[in-house]
Amino acid sequence: MIHYFIVQNRSGKTRLAKWYQPYTEEEKTKLTSEIYRLLNAREAKFTNFLEFRTYKIVYRRYVGLYFVMCVDTTDNELAVLEAIHLFVEILDNYVRWGNFSLGTLFDQ
Fold first, then answer.
1. Staple 7 to which of 16, 51, 64, 103, CB 3.0 to 4.6 Å?
2. What are the CA-CA distances from residue 51 to residues 15, 35, 70, 97 (Å)?
3. d(CA 6, CA 12)
4. pLDDT one-digit tens code per residue, 6-39
5. pLDDT (tens digit, 9 = 90+) per residue, 67-98?
6. Alpha helices, DSSP H, located in the chain
7. Long-range contact pairs involving 84-93 (C-beta distance under 8 Å, separation at least 24)
8. What phi and psi, each to the nearest 5 degrees, are found at residue 84?
9. What does the alpha-carbon distance between residue 58 and residue 93 come to, in Å, rounded to a whole number?
10. Rounded to whole angstroms, how far apart are CA atoms 69 and 83?
């Protein structure tokens, strides 16, 4: 089950967030900053999965943006990575119709 989906840039600013569980604004802010610190400190040689509290974080970095999903520990990581990739492909096709890139879409 997906708990939340977050897109953050390299400086940690949240560009898109969808919450599938109820969280207070304070909890959301704390979660996004904690996740950014964890991901930013990781080296590229590590996997795109990590245990976070009682959940699993699956993420992928595209064009300087982190696409992050928080799921249950029993969920398939590869299926979640594929869902992230599909979302990025859809966004990429969407922005191709305009005159801007995926990075500039979230820099506004």
1. 16
2. 23, 11, 10, 38
3. 11
4. 999 989 999 999 999 999 999 999 999 999 999 9
5. 999 999 999 999 999 999 999 988 888 777 66
6. 25-41, 77-96, 102-106
7. 84/58, 84/59, 84/60, 85/60, 88/60, 88/62
8. -65, -45
9. 23
10. 9
